[in-house]
Structures are given as structure tokens and as C-alpha cells.
From TrEMBL:
Coiled coil: none annotated. Its main location: cytoplasm. InterPro entries: PI31-like, PI31_Prot_C, PI31_Prot_N. Transmembrane segments: none annotated. This is Proteasome inhibitor PI31 subunit. It is found in: Cytoplasm; Endoplasmic reticulum. Plays an important role in control of proteasome function. Inhibits the hydrolysis of protein and peptide substrates by the 20S proteasome. Also inhibits the activation of the proteasome by the proteasome regulatory proteins PA700 and PA28. Belongs to the proteasome inhibitor PI31 family. One of its GO terms (cellular component) is proteasome complex. The lineage of its organism: Eukaryota, Metazoa, Chordata, Craniata, Vertebrata.
Length: 270
């Protein structure tokens, strides 16, 4: 990896443990992602300066490493902490600008040869694997770049709408458009019970008997064609169980008051 050898050579005299080597590797991956180190410790200091190198005192504590970074565009400020737990290093990084936190656990012996800490060409093992783990598990993408990508994607979607391919789009309710959605014919063969066998398949049919699905000729009233002034075309799927909420035809006779009287209606003792 370009640059890592120079960085390691600059601090090799201060590396005394495998954990130091792993922290050095992670530091370089952060630098490669577009950041510069500004110092060690939680709080800013007068001696802070941006650099690709590790700052003085970066490994004074063998139990806790704390480093601070800022992006080249000064939009991201990272606080990196690495805690030694037995043979592992637990990394935690927080972006103070977005308050996003990520962490990564590294088994030190898997990636560092403790017997060759002073030789760069032999100290690291499986560097590509470790680099991928750091990139995917620890580094947080730049929120500003992500935001720009989202805006561009939104503009593309708004500039090229495809309403016919949107499953969540509600058809227009204007009855004058004449647009009617595509419905399957409820009288198709084997349609009865299709919705019960495959409720998510969009097939018609059901357990309740419906005259429009019984196989007999349909009546003159088709609610799927719409009711002028009441329902637009396509508001009711063909063959749906539909109870009209008003007169459908014109000049319909009123019901006979004596039509189907209750039992015993003429019994004075009821």
C-alpha cells in the first residue's frame, strides 16, 4: 500500500506492541479516506496541526489510543478510540458533525506478526482483508457527498416519472379522464377461490358467493363502468361485491310498502 511503508518507517522506533502496528494501519486507512490527523487526546491542544503522520504521544497508553481527525474539506471531524481487550482491539469512531458512530473489533494476531514488529515487509498479514474491514465497518461515508447523490437521484426521478410502474400510485379520481385500470375478468376459468389460494397474487375470487361470479349472465348494471356524477370509471373492480349507495338507474319505481311484510304483521296480539 502506497504511503503505509513511509508512515510505518517514521514511527517504527516507537512501536513496541502488535496493537501499535494495528493502530498505525487504521490511521493510514483514515488518511487515505480523505482525512488528516490533528492530534491525540479528546480535547484540542495548542500543538495540534494537520498531518498525515501520527502525532507525538499517540501510543503513550497501551490500553487506550485516542486520535482526532478532520476531513480535507473541513466538513467532517472524527474522534477515534481504540481499546485493548486481551488479544483484540476494539475501535470506535464518531463524527462530531453528524454524530454518527461506528465500531470495529480486530483480532490483532490475525493481521500482525508480533515477532517482526521492526520489519515492515513482514509485520502485516492479510492487509487487503484488514483494509476492507476498516473501510466497511469503521469509516463513515461523507454525509455531504451522500446528500448530493441523493439530490441528483431525486432530480432524475422527478424528471422522468413512470406512473404506470409505480405500485403505490393511486389512479386519478377525475371521472372525465375515462381512464380505467386493468382488472382481470372474474368470469375467467378457475377464477373462483383464486384470492383464497393466492391472496397476494392479485387474482379474483373468494369464499363468499357473488352473483357476478356465479356464471350466470350479468345484469345491465356494471359498477366498474362508473356511475355518472357519483363514481369514476374503474373505481369498482369488475365483479366486486358492491352495494350501491343511491339509485343507479333513472325513474326506478319506489318499493311496495307491503313487499315482504314481517311474519304476523296482521296479528293484533303480536
Amino acid at each position: 500500500m502506497a504511503g503505509l511503508e513511509l508512515l510505518y518507517s517514521s514511527v517504527v522506533s516507537k512501536i513496541t506492541s502488535p496493537q501499535d502496528a494495528v493502530v498505525c494501519f487504521v490511521h493510514w486507512e483514515i488518511v487515505r479516506s480523505g482525512h488528516k490527523c490533528i492530534g491525540s487526546g479528546d480535547q484540542p491542544q495548542h500543538s495540534d496541526k494537520t498531518s498525515e503522520l501520527l502525532p507525538p504521544g499517540w501510543n503513550d497508553s497501551r490500553e487506550l489510543y485516542t486520535l482526532r481527525y478532520q476531513s480535507n474539506n473541513d466538513k467532517s471531524h472524527l474522534l477515534l478510540k481504540a481499546i485493548t481487550v486481551d488479544s483484540t482491539l476494539i475501535f470506535n469512531i464518531m463524527d462530531s458533525a453528524t454524530e454518527r458512530v461506528s465500531d470495529l473489533t480486530v483480532n490483532v494476531s490475525d493481521y500482525v506478526d508480533a515477532e517482526n514488529l521492526q520489519e515492515f515487509d513482514r509485520v502485516f498479514k492479510k492487509t487487503e482483508e484488514l483494509a476492507k474491514k476498516v473501510e466497511s465497518g469503521l469509516l463513515v461515508p461523507d454525509s455531504s457527498v451522500k446528500g448530493e447523490s441523493s439530490k441528483k437521484a431525486g432530480k432524475r426521478r422527478s424528471a422522468d416519472p413512470q406512473p404506470d410502474q409505480d405500485p403505490l400510485l393511486i389512479p386519478p379520481r377525475n371521472p372525465h379522464t375515462g381512464r380505467q385500470p386493468h382488472w382481470q375478468d372474474p368470469l375467467a376459468p378457475f377464477a373462483a377461490g383464486g384470492a383464497d389460494l393466492d391472496p397476494f397474487g392479485g387474482r379474483p375470487g373468494g369464499m363468499i358467493m357473488d352473483p357476478l361470479r356465479s356464471g350466470f349472465p350479468r345484469s345491465g348494471f356494471d359498477p366498474s363502468a362508473g356511475i355518472p356524477g357519483r363514481l369514476p370509471p374503474g373505481a369498482v373492480p369488475p365483479g366486486a361485491r358492491f352495494d350501491p349507495f343511491g339509485p343507479v338507474g333513472q325513474n326506478r319505481p319506489s318499493p311496495d310498502p307491503d313487499h315482504m311484510p314481517p311474519p304476523g304483521y296482521d296479528d293484533m296480539f303480536m
